[in-house]
């Protein structure tokens, strides 16, 4: 499915800031930024990615912050009653 079609089905641009512990140095935190189209508020695609992370990667998750935004919105416009011509 194309990104445009997914947006029409109420998918929103979702960004997650993932803080995780370094495998060799557990006291050190590293940041990973993940971004994709996902459905708020349950975020199934992000959940699938985090499940994959926990099962297959060594860095333990510390904290995940999520932000999302609607990309396609109704057009905002205003009719103008005056016409001005510039030379």
**What is the beta-strand fraction?**
25-35%
Largest sheet: 3 strands, antiparallel
- Write down the overall mean pLDDT: 87
User: Which regions have little confidence, pLDDT < 50, spanning 5+ residues?
Assistant: none
Q: What is the overall silhouette?
A: elongated
Report the structural category. alpha+beta
Gap between N and C termini? 48 Å
The helical percent reads 10-25%
Report strand order across the widest sheet: 2-1-3
The SSE order reads: HEEHE
Number of beta-strand segments: 3
DSSP summary: helix tally: 2
Radius of gyration: 20 Å
Supply the key terms.
single chain; 87 residues; alpha+beta; three-stranded antiparallel beta sheet; 2 helices; 3 strands
């Amino acid at each position: 499915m194309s990104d445009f079609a997914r947006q029409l089905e109420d998918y929103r641009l979702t960004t997650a800031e993932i803080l995780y512990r370094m495998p060799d140095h557990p006291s050190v935190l590293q940041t990973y930024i993940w971004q994709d189209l996902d459905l708020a508020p349950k975020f199934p695609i992000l959940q699938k990615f985090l499940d994959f992370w926990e099962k297959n990667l060594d860095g333990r998750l510390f904290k995940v912050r999520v932000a999302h935004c609607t990309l396609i919105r109704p057009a905002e416009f205003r009719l103008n009653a005056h016409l001005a011509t510039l030379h």
